Amino acid sequence: MRHPYTRTRRRRLLAALTASFLALAGAAPAVAGDLHPSGADLRSSGAEREPSAAPALADGLALTPPMGFNNWNSTHCGPEFDESMVEGIADLFVTEGLKDAGYRYVNLDDCWALPARDADGKLVPDPARFPHGIKAVADYVHAKGLKLGIYTSAGTKTCNSAGFPGALGHEYSDAEQFAAWGIDYLKYDNCNNQGVDAKQRYTTMRDALKAATAKTGRPIVYSICEWGQNKPWEWAADVGHLWRTTGDISDSWTSMLSILKQNLPLAPYAGPGHWNDPDMLEVGNGGMTDTEYRTHFSMWSIMASPLLIGTDLRKASAATLDILGNREVIAVDQDPLGKQGTVVSSADGRWVVAKEMKDGSRAVALFNETDAPQRIATTATAVGLPAADAYTLRDLWQHRSSNTAGTISATVPPHGTVLVRVFADRRWAAHPPAVELGVDGRPLAVAGRTLTLTSTATDLGRTPARDVSVALTGPEGWTLRARSPRRAAALPTGGALRTTWAVTPPQGAPAGSYDLTLTVRYLSPGGERVSEALPLTAAVVVPPPAGTSYLSDLPWLSATSGYGPVERDTSNGERPAGDGHPITLGGVVYAKGLGVHAPSALEYYAGGACTKVTADVGVDDEKGAKGTVAFEVWADGTKVASTGVLTNAMPAQPIAADVTGAQVVRLVVTDGGDGTDSDHADWANARLTC
Ligand code: GLA
């Protein structure tokens, strides 16, 4: 295996010189974020650093990850994919400021051509979608200062079942046609490859593009799309500018998360001109929450991934445009040092990922994979910064700067990411101290009864926070009273204001989730007024009935399932609610139970009144041999029973857990360590005794 770091110093020096020449010549687009948030220009401080790796193709292309649009994630081969869409996107790049934010490529995916080549073996654009041909679209896009990309497959046909022509055996002719049309980017897929060696197929197209662009003088960025099947990160650095590392993304949290986890370990292989590609963005397509889309965009950026917008911008919401247009986050992605962020720590779904930036700062993502709020913490030295009295901490979603004595931490909402940039600069004292908000315990209350909650406001800064006060607000009808002081004259470094609150939902409040907000207000030493808010979710719960009840007859606090919803008294059918079958384990049919798909977690309120959970568990008979899962029962934060890995071939296994005193009982199913394929898990006869 050839590792990207083993290249010689001479090549790196040459590459660095080429890169700076190109930058001077204006070939690399200026990107937002070179300026320190405090206004200081820090570019020079990183100038003597070496880039992490040479631009492998030494053609000066894709020195930062490509940014643009591709229609696939929003249209697939639907009729709305046509000339007016593509040109409409190009218009919006300009009018919505996305071009200014760095987006350049407008890329066509599969289904732009007719199924048959013409008599000369040339590709023919579908006249229904592209009545004026591709060259006309290229001219339109170029006139706006943008670039056009196209798609084909390194096979006899593309991936779509209609059978559009692929380029295998036609590489030189097709590359010439693309170059003649003025194409700037080629995505080269892997379908119908006839078993021909991948390296050979992708190298042939590289050489064909080189030959074709030598004639036109218009370079083409080359995107390898073989889904990571042949570990392209090991051989493609001098073949293409980017390579897909995984199968296709879809617009769901589980898909995005699984791709993220596959791409994170590949950090050493990325660098200027040769990038890992975890697939195009789903931001805005509707299958995730805006919190999840901010995570998607934050994590793709910290991984120095290509940022190809995959939503139809003509229909995008303000929130979507806000995410895609966040220049401080884009600057993390586009940093000219070109390093992919690496995992600093990950425990129980709390991830810290850090990316070294050219100016010496670090971008740091605090990412919460779990379904509950989590405090995620690291330090400036742990993310690679030199020891210092204090640091400037810039929140890239809130667009606010503060100072920290070294701790980088936050309570991160479920599936959320706090993305910051941390500078070991001398200007930290110009910013107010960072104050971290947190709460102990979880706000669960029975209607009309009081629960207590403790909040903390901690000064993470080097400077004191003065005139500090916290407030807790909630929905109408709720009573929220401080039972201990909620003000402090000053908090020194590390000092905390702890406040106990009595929280009472009104009598008759229906069970469910409610929003509370914890706010802190304080003055910086310079007299700046600061306020910081932490959204909290409270739940009104129903006390569990005395005696033994089937869990499928009780309301749950929360429920997640890898595919489809959790089903009561049937197996999991993977799609809409109610599509399961009778729960069947080892040939035995159960009338009661819960059907889930790994990974899954179900929470029930026990209120300290219950003693026992019992069930017969296993992989439902409806699936084949690939189904392997493991079951766990948790009493608050403690695992109190587990099964080890169970397979589809095994009969039901009894599980019994002592949950005495637990407020919350949690039933967890993991994938058994081999992915989630066929993981239909049943909690048959699941019962709770209180
Ligand atoms: C493959 C690719 C996708 C998309 C489709 C088009 O699945 O991985 O990104 O291009 O083909 O058919």
TrEMBL record:
Taxonomic superkingdom: Bacteria
CDD domains documented for this protein: GH27
UniProt domain Glycosyl hydrolase family 98 putative carbohydrate-binding module: residue ranges: 545-690
Enzyme class (EC, first level): hydrolase
This enzyme's EC code(s): 3.2.1.22
Catalysed reaction, written as an equation: Hydrolysis of terminal, non-reducing alpha-D-galactose residues in alpha-D-galactosides, including galactose oligosaccharides, galactomannans and galactolipids
UniProt keyword annotation of Hydrolase present: yes
Gene Ontology MF term list: alpha-galactosidase activity
Key word Secreted present: no
Keywords: Disulfide bond, Glycosidase, Hydrolase, Signal
GO terms, biological process: carbohydrate catabolic process
Signal peptide residues on this chain, from the entry's feature table: 1-32
Family named by the database record: Belongs to the glycosyl hydrolase 27 family.
Protein name: Alpha-galactosidase
